[in-house]
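TL;DR need structure tokens for one chain.
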Amino acid sequence: MSDSKRHIRDEIFGIPPYNSGLTLDEVRERYHPATIAKLGSNENPLGPSPAAMDFGGNHAELARLYPDPKGRALCEALSARFGIDADNIVLGNGSEDLIGVVCRAVVRPGDVVTTLYPSFPLHEDYAVLMGGVIERIAIKPDLTVDVAGLLAAAARKPRLLIFANPMNPVGSWIGSADFRRVLDAVHEDTLLVVDEAYAEYAAGDDYPETIDLLKASKKSWIVLRTFSKAYGLAGLRIGFGLASSTGLCDFLNRVRTPFNTNAFAQAAAISALADDAHLEKTVSLVLSERSRLSETLKKKGLTVAPSKGNFVFFDCGMDATACAERLLAAGVIVKPWKQQGYQTFIRVSIGSVAENDQFLEALDAALKP
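>> reply
TL;DR here they are.
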């Protein structure tokens, strides 16, 4: 057998396999639980809007023909929602696809890419793939964002400043006043990318109106959003980026694959975007259950990060992978965090009331010596 390594670029050896978690079928085959609470991937427990699954049109024709490569109808709907010109919007096969597009378009070998830590791994991996050098701004001991550290990093003029707000996996966030400070500190040579995959769950007190603030600035920026979380379309893979200029968006469109979002996803996203009632129902459930889970975990004596996402990040006080394996045996899927310094932390998604109850009951047993 030939040595496959000789064909692979050096940068790839430093990228660990992405931890996408176990599927329902894998858990059933391994443990045969009576019920499964899938709380590892931050999916919507209510699922998509019924309108998104009944979006009309000729489904056979949608399957037969190539999709609109620019997704113009969806971009027009997003333009109306966010007050951004449709030509400043780029679509992706999920927002994670667009992280790769941005890195391929922007990052050169040796370029510094600054991000918060612990991070969504793809913020780092795609940059490393392009030869970028990662600068991590770790959260503070109280698990909140180190804004001072972020400001200092911005002053060093990295090529790319990319972070999630709220943070994934932690759930902590940069508030309105601090976001203005960060924006002011960003140099004109730095591209600012704000990953707002969980923004629908964060709106409210002390969360920035990011788009309005960015539009009023003269910086170069991209805001990433997704239909996978609050809109419940994770399986269709549809996300979008809002860019500071048509020129920037044009270059991103050159880098992405021409038909990177399929016709069904585009049509479903348009219908989902129009169903505000379903979105409000989803967000209401998550906010209520997020508070309940956080308080219950604290009462168990566990350290819990503040969260504005549809998940909670907590220190289980033992090897997180071992704890997660015990939970799997009880039919509960969570995500043990494996980045250095946080191997005792677990990210648990907010599910239905029944799923969250199953998790809490299973956790008591899993934490026993």
